[in-house]
């Protein structure tokens, strides 16, 4: 064990053996968060944090690169752990940016970005033109049903099971599917020059990488027509509206007539994890 490591280990033991009570004071503090960034790489400082002999604190990866010269004071130096700054960095807790959407997490400055990348309270957006509503998927769902009168195609969808979506060709606009795991899917039909275009997307705040296989089966007695296609759904927070680069299921214009609907046609959907 090198001298540096030995010193660090001893420091840890001394810290754990410390006495005295910590006081938690809930107070209104204003702070310039820039001081919690490494002055060399500008990334948030996270333990272990090191300081030069003058007292400039830098992150450990910058310490590894600079080794024996301080970037700030340009003096030859030996870096040591800076436990005071480590304690400060660990003790300052911030609210998640999604606190207004129900996230109660209090996180350190250096964990904030990581937390928010995966925060389940991050909002998704209403894709309706002219509507700026956003919220967690549960709240957004209520908004879709209450404000825009979108209909449920299925409230408790089991993966692998086939459901007949009665509303899909009966009305224009999105149909809501709710998986029995709480996942929200939208099946949207719009009219284009060639006919109706159906897209299916999974609404989630972060692209999780888990995609779903969707099987759409359209059948109609008059005029006689049937079409079945299997494709992968896209995953979106709807920030830019309905995804445009996803698979599009084309419903021939002849089936839809002037109204863009055909209540007599049957559309069945089956979703299952890929
Ligand atoms: Zn750095
Ligand atoms: Zn320095
Ligand atoms: Zn959060
Ligand atoms: Zn809306």
From TrEMBL:
It holds the Pfam family Sina_ZnF. Residues 91-149 form the SIAH-type domain. Residues 1-23 are annotated as: Disordered. It is an enzyme of class 2 (transferase). It comes from Triticum aestivum. Its EC number is 2.3.2.27. Keywords: Metal-binding, Transferase, Ubl conjugation pathway, Zinc, Zinc-finger. It comes from the Eukaryota. Signal peptide: none annotated. The keyword Acyltransferase does not apply. This is RING-type E3 ubiquitin transferase. Belongs to the SINA (Seven in absentia) family. GO terms for molecular function: ubiquitin protein ligase activity; zinc ion binding. Residues 10-19 have a biased composition (Basic and acidic residues). SUPFAM superfamilies: TRAF domain-like. Pathway: Protein modification; protein ubiquitination. The keyword Transferase applies. One of its GO terms (cellular component) is cytoplasm. It catalyses: S-ubiquitinyl-[E2 ubiquitin-conjugating enzyme]-L-cysteine + [acceptor protein]-L-lysine = [E2 ubiquitin-conjugating enzyme]-L-cysteine + N(6)-ubiquitinyl-[acceptor protein]-L-lysine.
């Amino acid at each position: 064990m090198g001298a540096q490591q030995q010193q660090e280990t001893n420091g840890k033991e001394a810290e754990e053996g410390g006495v005295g009570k910590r006081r938690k004071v809930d107070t209104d503090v204003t702070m310039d968060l820039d001081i919690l960034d490494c002055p060399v790489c500008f990334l948030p400082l996270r333990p272990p944090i090191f300081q030069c002999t003058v007292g400039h604190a830098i992150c450990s990866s910058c310490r590894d690169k600079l080794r024996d010269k301080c970037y700030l004071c340009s003096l030859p130096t030996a870096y040591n752990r800076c436990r005071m700054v480590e304690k400060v960095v660990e003790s300052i807790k911030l609210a998640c940016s999604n606190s207004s959407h129900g996230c109660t997490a209090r996180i350190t400055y250096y964990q904030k970005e990581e937390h928010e990348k995966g925060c389940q309270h991050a909002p998704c957006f209403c894709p309706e033109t002219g509507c700026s509503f956003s919220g967690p998927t549960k709240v957004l769902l209520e908004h879709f049903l209450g404000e825009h009168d979108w209909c449920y195609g299925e409230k408790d969808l089991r993966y692998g099971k086939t459901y007949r979506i009665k509303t899909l060709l009966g009305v224009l606009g999105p149909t809501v599917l709710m998986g029995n795991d709480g996942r929200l899917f939208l099946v949207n039909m719009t009219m284009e020059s060639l006919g109706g275009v159906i897209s299916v997307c999974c609404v989630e705040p972060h692209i999780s990488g888990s995609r779903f296989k969707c099987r759409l089966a359209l059948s109609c007695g008059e005029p006689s027509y049937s079409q079945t296609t299997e494709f992968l759904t896209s995953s979106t927070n709807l920030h830019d509206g309905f995804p445009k680069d996803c698979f599009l299921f084309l419903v021939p214009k002849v089936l839809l007539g002037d109204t863009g609907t055909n209540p007599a046609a049957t559309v069945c959907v089956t979703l299952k994890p890929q």
